[in-house]
What we know:
Layout: E1 4-9, E2 12-16, E3 20-26, E4 32-38, E5 55-58, H1 65-73, H2 79-85, E6 101-104, H3 107-110, H4 117-135
Antiparallel strand pairs: 1-2, 2-3, 3-4, 5-6
Amino acid sequence: MELHKKNVNRSSVLVYNQENIDVFFNEKNGKNNIIPIDIDSDNSNLIEVEEKQTKTIILSEGKTLRLLSLELFGDKAFWVYIYQENIDIIPNPNIVSSGLNLKIPDIDKYFIKKDDSESISKAIQEGIRILDSKKRY
């Protein structure tokens, strides 16, 4: 049985043969997950997994997460998703230093839609939950 290996991107590798495909995802903790995918034995085509590139932005002087959210997504309510994507460098969403290189959240991951009241309401509720949890400490 001949195995083929292809680096798809920096975070995954596909190993495939006529019967199946194993996808190895490199996690931040260094562990690998193996997800076997059965394919038709007549089909040996490589299936590529496309991973979105993380976009970043440097927070300028005087900007807040809310203002950045308004600029990027059309509503201040979506600040919560910027915070969640950058929680490792922003311990408190009320105190954010300028000059931080922030990851921009993927609009599909968080269902960010400026003209959708349900999307905005969900973001507002998540923001309230986060801010309430920060008041306890």
